Each structure stands twice: as C-alpha cells, then as structure tokens.
Amino acid sequence: MVTGRNAIKPIFRSGPSISARVAALVLASVLLILADWRFGALAPARVAFADAAVPFYWVTTLPGRLFGWVQEVFVSRDTLIEENRVLRAEALVLRASTQRLAALAAENVRLRELLNSTALLDERVLVAEIIGVSPDMSSQTVVIDKGTAHGLAQGQAVIDAYGLFGQIIEVSRFSSRVLLVTDSMHALPAQVVRNGVRVMVEGEGRIDVLDVNHVASTMDVRPGDLLVSSGLGQRFPGGYPVGVVESVTNDPGKPFAVVVARPSAQLDRSRHVLVVTEGEASADAASSGVAPSGTAQEAVDAGMPGATPRADASAPTAPGQDGLP
Length: 325
Fold this sequence. Notes:
The chain is an alpha+beta fold. It is 31% helix and 24% strand. A 6-stranded antiparallel barrel has the order 1-2-5-4-3-12. It has a 6-stranded antiparallel β-barrel with strand order 6-7-8-11-10-9.
C-alpha cells in the first residue's frame, strides 16, 4: 500500500464546482435571452423547431380526428336529411341577404366616390386548421397548420365564422402561432356599430373577457352593443365583429367607465379559422356586386364547415367608419 509522500496523484484535476457551473449556465441563458430579444438571434432556431414540431401536433390530434371520422361514418340517414334541410334553409336566407348586400355595396362605393374616399380592398382569405394550443396559461396562443409556404406572414389577421380571432405573431414554413384577442398583450381599435363611438379593446388573459378602454363616462355605450374592428390601426380590416358589451359601470369619481365585453369569436371551440391576407384595391368589383376570387365565400366552399364571414370586403362598413355618415 502506497501512503504518504509516495501516494499516487490523480491524473485529472477535479472540474469546476457545481455553483460555478450553475452560474455559468445562468449567465449564458441571460445572454441568449438578451440577444434574442434585442437582435432576434434565435429566430431561425425557433422556426426550425416549430417546423420539426408540426408532426407531433398532428399525432396529438390524431385521436380526435379518428373519433370525428368514426362519427361521420356511422351518422344516421335521418340526421343527414335533417342537416341537409337546415343547411338548405340557411343557404336560401344567405342568398337573399347577399342580393341585398350587393346593392348596398354598390351604393357604398358610389358614396365613397362622391367623398373622394380611398378605394376598397378585396380581402383574400386562407382556410387553416388549429393543430395546437399553448399550455401556458399566461399566454393565449394557438398553432395553425399554415405558414410561409402558404403565403402567410407575421401580423396578418385571423378570423373564425363568428368574428375576429387574433393575429399571427410567429411564422414558420408549415405552421404559424396566433395570438388570441383575449391575450393580455393584445389590443386593437374598435367602434360601436350602433353609433360609431371609437374604443380600444384589450385582452385580459381570460378566454371569455375583453376590456373596453378609453370609454368616457359621457360616451353612449350600452350593454348589448356590438363592437367591430375599426381598421384604424392598419393591422385588422374594418368591420369584423370583435365582441358584445356585457356590462358598463360608471364611477362618479372617475373619468372613464369600466366596460366589459364578451368576444364574438369562439376562441375555445373553433377548429377552423380564416387568415385574412393582403388585398388589392378594387372598387369596380364592388360596384358590380361580384365577389372577387379568393374571398371568404370561396374559402368556405373550399371546405370550412359552418363559416359565414363577410362574402365581400366591399360590403357596407359600420356607421361612422372611415368618415362615412
């Protein structure tokens, strides 16, 4: 046994302590966060990971898809007949409404021409399916199955069959992340359909609540009022339903009322959404009453069940919007 001065010395010295390693990792993490926040250094890595995660999203939704397919296969004949009857009745009503909207759209274009207003936009839409929901309760986002390969870009508005859904905040090649209108970091300018009063609608972090801010106590805003996007923020198209006012509370000691609204879109139930892409000026199409190719109606025909968005972006806007009486 070798002891004392002749003891064998270790070949490798011991590495840094655990504390030093943890401190180094924390410092590296902080530097990466700052680099990404300041310069977007990790954006390519995020896009690559998002593309790689798309198959996992599809796998996680496979049981639901399979269950829906089984339901469709074994649905009864009587159910199909009843659904067909209801859909035919709805289609008849919608055709009548479309005929009236075509005349109103032409009149709206003539009024804009008299006022030397800007040309209308033919909004094009793309059907997308929700394939993922953020597990983070503090961030209300969903993932859709369309990305840059389909012409999507950051900042585009997203709607469902009932109203404004949110906007795209991150895009990869085959998927995109959508920030819901109820997220606490989301805000958009809106207006009351009844009288054209302009307000600011902000998310509160709850799926069924919207805060309506900048409403003076003297403003005419009532429960039941429909709020639509005003288009003033140059981010969302004007005229899409945002929410319905549920309560208005006036405090005599405060200059602004506390107004709460419920979102129009079915944020926690919709499976398919429409992404509103760039449009081109087309007053002639509106005056002719013919919907342009690629509009919401075409997208609905392409396979979005139950969707009833505006058939044409040239339809009349809410009173008071864009300076119209």
